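$ fold --in a.seq
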Amino acid sequence: MRGLDVRTERYGSADGPLIARVIGDAGVANADRLAALLRDVLAIKPRLIVLDLSETTGVGSMALGVLVQFNKICKRDGLRVRIAAPSQSALQGILLARLDSVLDVYATLDDAMEGEGACNGPVRMAGAKPASGTGSVSGAIPTSGEWQPPPSARPAR
C-alpha cells in the first residue's frame, strides 16, 4: 500500500487561507486516513481551505466521498473549500462522478487562492461530451486536450 499525507501551510498571515496539499495514493486503502487528516485540517478552522490535489494519485470513489463530506461540513461551519490543480486521476474521478457541480474546482493553486476561474458548471476532459441537461463550461480548466497534470503528478516512465 502506498502512503497518503496532508501537509498544511498558511498563506499570508496567521489567519490567512490554509493550503492543504494532499500527497500520495487516495485510493480505497487510504480513504479513512484521508478523512482523519482532513478532520485535523478542519480543527484549525481557517475561513478558506484550499485542497491542492496536484500530487494525489489513485483517487477512488471513497476518497471522493470523503471530499464531498468534508465540503458539506465546511459549509455547515461557515468555511469555504476550494479544490486546486487536481491531478489527472483526481480530475477524472471528479468529472465521472459529476462532482464538479458540488465542489469548487480550480485549474491552478493561484486561481484557487484568488477565487478566479472556478468552474460553475461541468468541466470536461479531452474528448468528453457534457452530460445532457448541463450548462457550458466556465473557468480556467481546459475543455480540450490542453489539460496536463503537473509534472509531479505524472507517472514515471
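$ fold --in b.seq
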Amino acid sequence: MDYIEAVRRRLGHDLVITIGCGGVIEDPEGRILLQRRRAEDLWAVPGGLIEPGEFVADAMRREALEETGLDVEVGGLFGVYSGPEGYAAYANGDRVFSVMLIMRARTLTGVPRAEGEGFLAHRFFSREEFPDLELVWGHQRRILVDWLSGEAGPFLR
C-alpha cells in the first residue's frame, strides 16, 4: 500500500494536502508532451505524487516512465505551483490541495504509450498546434500558460 492509500484509509475523502511533481517534457524539436487524462478527458503534463523520502527528480523520472513509457533526463526546476488553483476534487470524492513541483525534462529513450489505465493518449504539441486551454485540466492551466510564454522561469505561482 502506498502512502496516499494509507492516508485515505484514515481520512476518507476529506481534504488532503499533497506534494506532486510533474514534467514539462520536451522532445528534440522543443514540443511538449501532454497526456489526455481518462477521468477528466482533459490534457495535462505527466506527473504524480512524491512518495515519502523520494527525491523530486527521482519521482519525476519514475512518474514519466510509469505513465508514458519514456526514459527522461530531468533538468532544472520549471516552476512551483500553489494557491487557490491547487484545489481539486476527483470523481471518487477525494479532495486535495496540491503543491506542484514541475521540472524541465527531455526525452532520452522510448515511445509514448498510446493508452493506459489513467490516460487516453499521449501527444507532443508545438506552441503553434497547442490545444485550446479549455481542453487542459484546470489544475494545470497555469503550467501550460507559462510554457506557451516561452519564458525561461522558474515560475513561482
